[in-house]
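Priority: medium. Attachment 1 of 2:
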């Protein structure tokens, strides 16, 4: 694929490579990863738990690395455990902050994906998707909801006493979340999406193809939503296939679509895989061995 792109650039065809764009996109991806811990720090401070950036940075990096390396969502419980063991943050506060992060992040993703699709992506979608196919989607969705409710009901019956006590304290903490913290988290989410769409736009430009930014934003948000509802850690595979399909709908050639999707996934995963190793060393050296309670920046 890359050989064909390079050969096309040499021969002056429609496939052009500007190699400067690849490191620029990678730097944008790294900056995106560095602002993510501010989101967690703001959530904790919003419920009254003071904390510093760098300890949360290493914990977030380690838990996200674990989440990207195993085929189940291990990052959330691992993050709560590390915050308890290393920073002495109670499980109730960790769970409250994580729930605030999750609900706000997923809520913004759902709303943004819906609005951007209706506003800027709808002209590119195939009208034939309506009609008969919807009759297959609705019962499947309903069946999934019923199965989920049945499983949750069984869990609640077995864990009713202890679970309700824990949930009550978590709900109280969430209800006291500062409005200013929610506003800052919302702003951080907007900045994160701007960085993500910038990364995609730079990669497309590096391969000689430009897509209008608003339809590209809609395609990116819709692919994120597909990754979220799949419950696959980091949307691995589901988000990539969705993004590739939508880029093809936007008129991006197949070779460029595959290259951009592959590089975008690499830029998302690489900081976590490498950073996870660094975080393991830092957390082990500064906490697990010496028992210190802070991590220097």
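Attachment 2 of 2:
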């Amino acid at each position: 694929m890359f050989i064909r792109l390079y050969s096309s650039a040499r021969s002056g065809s429609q496939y052009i490579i500007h190699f400067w764009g690849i490191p620029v996109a990678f730097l944008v991806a790294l900056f995106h990863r560095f602002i993510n811990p501010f989101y967690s720090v703001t959530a904790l401070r919003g419920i009254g738990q003071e904390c510093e950036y760098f300890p949360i940075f290493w914990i977030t990096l380690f838990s996200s690395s674990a989440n990207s390396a195993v085929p189940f969502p291990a990052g959330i419980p691992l993050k709560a455990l590390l915050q308890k063991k290393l920073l002495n943050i109670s499980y109730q506060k960790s769970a409250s902050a994580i729930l605030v992060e999750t609900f706000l992040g997923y809520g913004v993703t759902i709303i943004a994906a819906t609005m951007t699709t209706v506003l800027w992506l709808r002209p590119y979608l195939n009208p034939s998707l309506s009609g008969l196919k919807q009759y297959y989607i609705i019962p499947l969705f309903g069946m999934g909801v019923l199965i989920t409710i049945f499983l949750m009901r069984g869990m609640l019956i077995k864990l009713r006493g202890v679970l309700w006590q824990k949930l009550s304290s978590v709900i109280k903490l969430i209800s006291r979340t500062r409005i200013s913290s929610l506003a800052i988290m919302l702003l951080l989410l907007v900045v994160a999406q701007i960085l993500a769409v910038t990364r995609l736009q730079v990669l497309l430009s590096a391969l000689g193809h430009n897509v209008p930014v608003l339809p590209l934003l809609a395609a990116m948000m819709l692919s994120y939503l597909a990754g979220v509802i799949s419950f696959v850690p980091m949307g691995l595979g589901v988000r990539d296939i969705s993004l590739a399909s939508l880029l093809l709908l936007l008129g991006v050639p197949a070779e460029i679509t595959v290259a951009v999707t592959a590089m975008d996934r690499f830029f998302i995963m690489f900081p976590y895989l490498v950073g996870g190793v660094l975080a393991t060393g830092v957390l082990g050296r500064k906490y697990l061995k010496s028992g210190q309670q802070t991590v220097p920046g």
